[in-house]
Amino acid sequence: MTLANVHSFESFGSVDGPGVRFVVFLQGCKLRCKYCHNPDSWKMADNQLISAEDIVKKALSFQDYWGKDGGVTVSGGEPLLQIDFLIEFFKLLKAKKIHTTIDTSAGPFTLEEPFISKFNELMQYTDLVMLDLKHFYAKEHYALTKMDNTHILQCAKHLESLGKDVWIRHVLVPGYTDNEQHLKDLGAFIKSLSNVKKVEILPYHSFGKFKWDNLGLKYELDDVHTPSEEEVKRAKELMGLI
Ligand code: SF4
Description:
This protein is α/β, with parallel strands linked by helices. The protein is 34% helix and 21% strand. It contains eight helices and eight strands; from the N terminus they run βββαβαβαβααβαβαα. An eight-stranded mixed beta sheet has the order 3-1-2-4-5-6-7-8. α2 links the parallel β4 (71-75) and β5 (99-104). α1 (52-60) packs across α2 and α2 runs parallel beside α3 (115-124). It is globular and about 45 Å long. The site of iron/sulfur cluster has 11 residues, from loops.
């Protein structure tokens, strides 16, 4: 039995996959996104250690609210850092025919063993992957998140080879991710993937800034504004989404 290191739960998530969802936020992330809303989830230090069985029980107590589309999402932090737990957890949920979603930035993804066999096993129990693409270019991705993105794009291609349903998420950050050519290239990459069911452009906002302040971390995006509806529309047009 593998215990999950849990950051928090949300009983009625409405933005983390189809329908109403029970969302498990796992602790730990190795990216350092400048706009992260949950910097308190970065450390792998033990938070709440809970078994897959106990989380299934907790999730099921909300099942009446899910309707036909809802289910369970695991987010973070970065869920794939706890892949052994995810396999156990999703196996139990699929045995009960519950819709399963992972919200990931694919930071831990690699085609190397033992990870890739575990990942492929996990995908057998996963209905949907919400994949965050932070930036299409490696250098800019590193500047924004302190991690290269070669393996993240590889993850997108691997999910296509598995035929797994994917929703892509991209945070529009003025001055960082809204460059015209970047949006065109990112859009073309996403269009080249045959398994993408939805693309969401999320306007940057600074709601998580207070957490950075509380942790004594320097928040570098103070001068960045939240994109207007017009700016989001422009991004969607450049990406070929509308
Ligand atoms: S991947 Fe998510 S949790 Fe990790 S630093 Fe980025 S925004 Fe924060």
